[in-house]
Design goal:
Elements: H1 4-25, H2 31-64, H3 70-93, H4 97-129, H5 134-143
Helix pairs in contact: 1-2, 1-4, 2-3, 2-5, 3-4
């Protein structure tokens, strides 16, 4: 059986792979492919955030009563990353490779720090707090539309 931490960590890895692909393609000249690959990555990240913000975090907060703790910090970081997503999308529209890669570099650092906090602390806390409801929470997250 999956745990929440294994499921979400696996999704982090999937998003990381899509990021790497988008970043690698951005060194080329094919703006159609750059746009497509970056959109796939951005869609995957937005889906990941929806699983957390619509299902996982509320379930954890309801179970523990902690609404101003680690989930609030993660939500604030999601806002910051969404701003970078928008900047990257704008750079693609403008076909500005340097801007795209600069925003991507900033995002990479932020994602690495964010993922480490979730994987090494928050998800483990959630696994423990939600042990009796884990299967239901996983089903709800899997049902979140892409």
């Amino acid at each position: 059986m999956d745990t929440i931490s294994s499921y979400m960590t696996s999704d982090h890895h999937r998003c990381d792979e899509l990021f790497s692909q988008a970043e690698a393609v951005a060194s080329g000249q094919d703006w159609g492919r750059i746009a497509a690959d970056s959109q796939v990555f951005l869609d995957a990240m937005r889906h990941h955030f929806r699983m957390e913000e619509d299902v996982l975090f509320p379930a954890f907060e309801q179970r523990t009563g902690m609404s101003m703790g680690p989930t609030q910090v993660m939500r604030m970081e999601h806002v910051q990353m969404r701003e970078l997503f928008d900047a990257m999308a704008d750079a693609v529209k403008q076909q500005d490779r340097d801007e795209f890669l600069g925003q991507a570099e900033t995002l990479l650092v932020m994602m690495q720090q964010h993922n480490m906090k979730e994987e090494q602390m928050l998800y483990l806390m959630i696994d423990q707090a939600m042990a009796g409801e884990m299967e239901d929470v996983l089903l709800q997250m899997r049902a979140v539309g892409a």
